[in-house]
Amino acid sequence: MSSKEKQDVENFKSTADLTSNPGFQSSLSIDSKDACHEKAYNPFEHRQVEHPTTTFGAIAHILKACIGTGVLAMPAAFKNSGLIAGVIGTLFAGLVCTHTVQLVVSISQKVCVEAKKPSMSFAETCGAAFEFGPKRVRTWHGFVKTLIDYSIAVTYLSVLCVYVVFMGSSFKEVIDFYYPEYIFSIQAYCIATLVPLALICQIRNLKYLVPFSTLANILLLVVFGITMYYVFIDLPPITDREMVASITTWPLFMSTVIFAMEGIGVVMPVENEMKNPQRFLGCPGVWNTSMVIVISLFGVVGFFGYVQFGDAAKGSVTLNLPEDHMVAQATKVLMAIVIFFSFALQFYVPMEFIGRLLKQRKSDSYNNIIQISIRTVLVAIVVAIAAAFPNLELVISFVGAIFFSTLGLFIPAMIDIVYNWDRGFGCLKYRLFKDILICIVSVVALVSGAYVSVVGMIEDFSKSGDSSHVANETFV
């Protein structure tokens, strides 16, 4: 292979920086007589994935990314909406989340053709949407790409904080019941997860995470089955629960559902590494199949979980299971293991961005040591933050409101507007109005959800402070 051919192959790497290909100019001249006979660039034919993921593996990754702590928080979400409002809200949020991801993947595949690149990350797609959008915004593409990269990294590190709190809460409930003489704080249990999480996060290839995702999905089915048994046993009358809760708590519902369903950061890495990426969209398609399963599970767990536990529903329904039943306690441990296996997949998202930054180094010396150090330090930071804010329900709502409503709803709608500004929005500009509506929903969810979550955190912190003060006086 000649040096020029090698250089061309390197330019087709999915991790290539958009800014390293200024303008994404085609090598064809506009006036070329052969231009009309040039075969359209097919990005799928040029992808060189060392370890491609199968269609089944892609579905497993998507399900594992979307079905985690979020599905178990649905009864608490329904507590904040009511039964009727919860069903309608879940369907609405599910359809919107499904559509916004379709927007991102569709735009990514289109700009790959224009840029003559085999694949792009989520951030690269956002930058390219501006690059190939209206002339007056094209210079923003580098800034947009960098902003999205950092935003995704922070978002998924926040998700990992939720995972750590969940694992700590689950183990604490079980150990406190069986060993009451050893009562440790939730912070101690969060810190105890540091070493195992740091070890599993050293896995660097998405393909090698497929067995973990598959095992996690199998265990999740077991947990789901046992949890549903306790949810349906001696089910109270539906009339005992609110049909429509106070509107002041709806933001908590919407923020929790968005957090639970949204997997925007995992979608592009999965699609980019598929063996047959053309199967990702369409009907049935990887994404649509996965989301039908996700929405159905969320609706069932949320509805009947709230009917069973009512206002006592916790941030994870497994924490509501009876403490004096060994099977119920085992379920809490199994779910903690599921989240542990899911941690590495979610961790892959910020590390993909960091990995691209590392590839810009002129030297490969000490690359392995740097990778290990960065991964370990990031896990340590996540654990420390989780230990500082251990209220699971409010943390889930806050992360959903601030991060996922922005990345999962606002950004996809915005890049769709930018990319299609000069290409048209269809009959009566229906796509433009649809995207604007999604942006409005995103902003409302962000502001209201964040406000209610922060107020709840402040109140929770005040109560814990008062309790500690009383405990200290009693001890003295």
The gist of it:
This protein is an all-alpha fold and 476 residues long. The chain has 18 helices and no strands.
Sheet-strand content, in percent, reads: under 5%
The CATH superfamily label reads Hydantoin permease
Helix content: 55-70%
Integer-rounded radius of gyration: 24 Å
**Mean of all residue-level pLDDT scores:** 80
CA distance, first residue to last residue: 80 Å
Please write the CATH class name: Mainly Alpha
What structural class do the secondary elements suggest?
mainly alpha
Number of strands: 0
Ranges where pLDDT stays below 50 over 5 or more residues in a row are 2-33, 467-476
List the secondary-structure elements in sequence, H or E.
HHHHHHHHHHHHHHHHHH
Characterize the largest beta sheet: strand count, sense, and whether it forms a barrel.
none
Number of helices: 18
> What would you call the shape?
globular
CATH topology: Hydantoin permease
Question: What's the CATH architecture name?
Answer: Orthogonal Bundle
Number of domains: 1
Give a structural overview.
This protein is mostly helical. It has one domain: Hydantoin permease (Orthogonal Bundle). It contains 18 helices and no strands. Helix 3 packs antiparallel against helix 13 and helix 17 runs antiparallel to helix 18. The radius of gyration is 24 Å and the shape is globular.
